[in-house]
Amino acid sequence: MDLFLQYLANGIVVGSSYVLVAVGLTLIFGILGIVNFAHGEFYMLGGFAGIGLATVLGLPLIVSLLGVVAFAALLGFLAEQILNRQVKDKDPTNSIVSSFGLAVVLQNAALLVIGPQPMLLRTDLSMVPVEIGPVYLPLQRALIPVAMIVLVGALHLLLRYTWVGMSLRAMAQQPTVARMCGIRVSRVAIVTFMTGAVFAGVAGFLMSSVFMVHPLIGNMIVLKAFTVVILGGMGSVTGAAAAGLMLGIVESMTSAYLGNGLRDIVGFLMVVIVLLAWPQGIFGRKLERS
Amino acid sequence: MLKLDNIEAGYGNTRILHGVSLEIPKRGLVALLGGNGTGKSTTLKAIMGLVGLQSGTVTVDGRDMAGIAPEARAGLGLSLVPQGKEAFGAMSVEDNLRMGAYHRRKDRAGIAIDLEAVYTRFPRLKERRRVAAGMLSGGERQMLSIGRSLMSRPSVLLLDEPSAALAPKIVEEIAEAILGLRELGLTLLLVEQNVGMALDIADRLYVIRGGRIAHETAVGDGIAMSELQEFYLGGHQDA
């Protein structure tokens, strides 16, 4: 039982990073209709930026975190210019193909500039233990779910109670009516991309103390995030949050009780089953009377 | 005041409107009648700027709309009640109404006043204010659409087939609500297939066919329903 709780905690830590990446992916898809294959690179670059600021420059962790946020926001802004502004009006599939291209460019740019050597973030926090009953986590891991809850909670409040958030939801639900209300598509697109990139970048930074960061790490994380988005229902933030935690926990349990080799397969198996049985996603629902 | 002067518009190389002109004086209620595919919706999209003009001008309260983005037109007094009673389905009725005031979102006091005014006009919406808009009935959703437009404080209001897919009793209610809008001093353009409703409330009728105005008449000129239907159904050859 004690071990089970430890696996559960590990699953929640990893699942929290899936949530952070998937929330941005589902927002960009739900609001702009863009399938962003370059989303994993926000995660990868967030990890490298954080390691650079904290380890190479030796900045305090909180300052490094703010630096990662600013850097990721800039990345999101630039990605919007490339994936939405330039190509979207011509054909919706353009943005899918160009996001693939952007992913390859960013991966190779990272290989050229940083090199293939995997890096790990080492901080003083790894020495600080957090013990909850039989569960043990280093402080820097225990902070990952906390950061996830704070960020997703803040996003939830933003979407529900602010004009910016309401304009995002309006654009997701009825783009034409939203424009007629005076909402500017270009502004919504920039806010959406910047939010998505910041969430993924922060996830990359937080996880850089758990998994090694290398230039191709985005490939796996973006597939995990797509898994979460499909399980949670395309475009649903709460669905992505629930499904992300679920995937993290299921992977942790699979790896513990069935073998580590099955860890990365189980999510895709779930996607196939969910798409067959509930194409709307487990947490997706339609709120429209036909 | 709304004026269309010889507008031509379409999609890509396909031209839908071949020179549509119409004029609505302030406080006027004009109906634009026509069947499916005659250019009614394209006319509305051209007014809102969703379809680019190939030639001609759209003037709202004396101001030429050329070069003004669709999302900027709400702030200039132009509002569209879209076809199909489209609403932000997952948002509450009250949030839907608030979105109508998006272009003047800093005006908190004004928005609160306008919200109460919409609730007074449509008490049903007040009862349902916390409900998701997607759960409303067709008639309620039409009221919500009109209410959302009113929240933008328009001077010119365009209504795209407000009677479509509604029961006759509800259509009557909506017609009455539209008549009520005249008291606000609004300039109204009603696009309809429902000739009866248009005859009941409009003071001037235009019939559009093949992207051209085929007929124009004032209501009360002793216009015969049968004559109108002949135009409307296309039995009459173009002059």
Describe what this molecule looks like in 3D:
- The complex is a heterodimer of chains A (290) and B (239).
- With 290 residues, chain A is mainly alpha-helical.
- Chain A has one domain (12-217).
- Chain A is built from eleven helices and two strands, in the order ααααββααααααα.
- Chain A has helices spanning 2-32, 39-56, 61-85, 92-113, 139-161, 163-173, 175-180, 185-207, 217-232, 237-257, 263-277; strands spanning 129-132, 135-138.
- A two-stranded antiparallel ribbon of chain A has the order 1-2.
- Chain A is globular, with a radius of gyration of 19 Å.
- Chain A starts with a helix and ends in a 13-residue tail after the last helix.
- The mean pLDDT of chain A is 91.
- Chain B has 239 residues and is of the alpha/beta class.
- Chain B is globular, with a radius of gyration of 18 Å.
- Chain B has a domain at 2-85 and 154-233: P-loop containing nucleotide triphosphate hydrolases (Rossmann fold, 3-Layer(aba) Sandwich).
- Chain B has nine helices and ten strands.
- The model of chain B is unreliable at 235-239 (pLDDT under 50).
- The longest helix of chain B is centred in the C-terminal third of the chain and has 15 residues, at 168-182.
- Chain B has helices at 40-48, 70-73, 93-100, 108-121, 123-127, 138-150, 168-182, 195-201, 225-233; strands spanning 2-11, 14-24, 29-33, 53-60, 63-64, 78-81, 156-160, 187-192, 204-209, 212-218.
- In chain B, strands 6-7-8-3-9-10 form a six-stranded mixed sheet, sandwiched between helices.
- Chain B starts with a strand and ends in a 6-residue tail after the last helix.
- The chains are: A mainly alpha (290), B alpha/beta (239).
